């Protein structure tokens, strides 16, 4: 039976879904349960990674270092991962996270910008961490570009490179071609991270594993940004049906999902009209609020704005474009 | 572009999720929206079909004939379907539904019991209805059995035969082999109805369409029994990405989902521990409550009871078995 390593992101991607309001007690309870259930890694950070707590990205209710420390103190089998987006988090943030007990770092960049991560990957290795490169919005780049960028990550020292479907915009064949290409081009491990905007997170996860990915992200009750992630406890059941071993005790994981995560949730992880349109268009979830404002200002449909941005392959940082698109739609 | 006919079951399968409390005003608003969005058929009945309102299956807050009438009065493009489970609904119920405005009947039986439906299918045709056979719990029978039973439906006069994954227990290959076999063996149309207990409803739906199904069920916001159905508005987006036409205006459908269905929901359509275990074990959702009672009585884990029942291929009507299994687990 092939082995798949599960990384649970409830305490990091889920941070978005609870407006960064995790408490130490909540994180401790979830960490204790994940450790007991045999989940190899789980991630604890602000939703936008180390240092994300800010007016721009949302203030954390509790210092993330305290949360990392609480989580790490519960680990006897599991290890705590942290996410680091260069430009948001710093090398100092990473050193502090290691002091707090982190054993893995995932350095995340836009799919075409792996080169900004070289120092952070190198530092991760120097600090003795399991070190991972995380290519976000991977649906936006053609396969050759994904391979090129993944090779950069590997050359810096990444031990795993992730294909990350940040917008939940991929279909299984999109996952298959990317993971297979990395499988052929790299010697390190391949990971996959899904969002459920098109209700395809689980099918995409199965496609990734069948194509050779061995590190897979999920979150309990799907707690994560937008429509949420692949639901970890469901994935354990589904992967087992496909003949893959996760080493996770399903009943124990179900208990954490039901007793610890469900009560924390501020709203259910549904596919709303907003998250569907984001997934359909394949644009950043941070565009939604701007599109709503621009739609009101110019008297156009926010969905048309998002669809247009998707066709233009707009990326984060191009928020001004949203208002230009709205104006053009008004004229048209 | 191939055409797929969508049948929305929010107002029938969704009846379970709102404890059969739909009001005339709610049904009218949803019907108006579905008709405007171009959804060809939508179903209105008690969750367990015509005549389901009872202490055993749950009392309807509003007489279903009034709901059917309200829905039908809003239809200029769409047609109203009703579900009929022989033994729960009667031929008289069907005649009354037709008087109220129903234009389609779906006669539902357990996957091995199509023969109980002969008279009802024949009556549907006599009444001039679009007439459909609906094979529930289709994962429990091998492909040859599904084909045999579907042929019975066709011989009675069914114009469409559905493969129905009542427990949300199927994976895409389970769907593919069943739909392809029916495609080869029947001349009538093939339909598919999914539940999302394993987070595979959308992938299973795509598999069904690719294998030749042309009638597909969905529900807005996934409102339905257990973990809910394939989410209709998401399906419209996904099928379009796969190159299938649904004839549905996505924006109009999103408006119904957001403005009419979401406010009606009593709880979100999440995959809870209970619905996951039902899907994993592949057993009737009505077993859950009995399993919980039996677990308490015999001091065993309800999940072990359900998994054992799944392995035994227990079917509805065998509720006594649940307590026997609990007792055996206690002894073991």
UniProtKB/TrEMBL annotation, chains A, B:
Reactions performed catalytically: (S)-4-hydroxy-2-oxohexanoate = propanal + pyruvate; (S)-4-hydroxy-2-oxopentanoate = acetaldehyde + pyruvate
Residues engaged in binding substrate: 12-13, 166, 193, 284
EC number: 4.1.3.39
Pfam families given in the database record: DmpG_comm, HMGL-like
UniProt KW keywords: Aromatic hydrocarbons catabolism, Lyase, Manganese, Metal-binding
Positions annotated as active site in the UniProt record: 16
SUPFAM superfamilies per the UniProt record, alphabetical: Aldolase, post-HMGL domain-like
Any GO BP annotation: L-leucine biosynthetic process
Presence of the UniProt keyword rRNA processing in the record: no
Keyword Protein biosynthesis annotated: no
GO molecular function: 2-isopropylmalate synthase activity; 4-hydroxy-2-oxovalerate aldolase activity; manganese ion binding
All residue ranges annotated as the Pyruvate carboxyltransferase domain in the record: 4-254
Binding site for Mn(2+): 13, 193, 195
Transition state stabilizer, annotated site positions: 12
Family the UniProt entry places it in: Belongs to the 4-hydroxy-2-oxovalerate aldolase family.
NCBIfam families given in the database record: 4OH_2_O_val_ald, PRK08195.1
Protein name, per record: 4-hydroxy-2-oxovalerate aldolase
């Amino acid at each position: 039976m092939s082995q798949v390593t599960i990384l649970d992101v409830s305490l990091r991607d889920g941070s978005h879904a609870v407006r960064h309001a995790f408490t130490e007690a909540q994180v401790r309870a979830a960490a204790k349960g994940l450790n007991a259930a045999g989940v190899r890694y789980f991630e604890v950070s602000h939703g936008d990674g180390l240092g994300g707590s800010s007016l721009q990205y949302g203030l954390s209710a509790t210092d993330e270092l305290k949360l990392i420390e609480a989580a790490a103190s519960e680990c006897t089998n599991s290890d705590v991962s942290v996410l680091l987006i260069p430009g948001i988090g710093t090398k100092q943030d990473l050193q502090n996270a290691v002091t707090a007990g982190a054993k893995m770092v995932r350095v995340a960049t836009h799919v075409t910008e792996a080169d900004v991560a070289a120092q952070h990957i190198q530092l991760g290795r120097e600090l003795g961490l399991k070190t991972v490169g995380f290519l976000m919005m991977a649906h936006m780049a053609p396969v050759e570009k994904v391979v090129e960028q993944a090779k950069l990550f590997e050359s810096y020292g990444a031990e795993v490179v992730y294909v990350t479907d940040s917008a939940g915009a991929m279909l299984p064949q999109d996952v298959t071609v990317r993971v297979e290409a990395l499988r052929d081009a790299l010697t390190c491990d391949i990971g996959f991270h899904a969002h459920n905007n098109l209700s395809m997170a689980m099918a995409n996860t199965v496609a990734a594993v069948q194509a050779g990915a061995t590190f897979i992200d999920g979150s309990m009750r799907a707690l994560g940004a937008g429509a949420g992630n692949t639901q970890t406890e469901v994935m354990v059941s589904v992967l087992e049906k496909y003949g893959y071993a996760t080493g996770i005790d399903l009943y124990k994981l179900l208990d954490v999902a039901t007793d610890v995560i469900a009560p924390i949730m501020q709203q259910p992880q549904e596919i709303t009209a907003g998250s569907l349109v984001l997934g359909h268009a394949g644009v950043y979830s941070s565009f939604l609020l701007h599109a709503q404002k621009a739609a009101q200002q110019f008297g156009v449909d926010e969905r048309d704005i998002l669809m247009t941005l998707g066709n233009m392959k707009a990326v984060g940082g191009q928020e001004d474009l949203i208002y230009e698109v709205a104006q053009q739609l008004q004229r048209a």
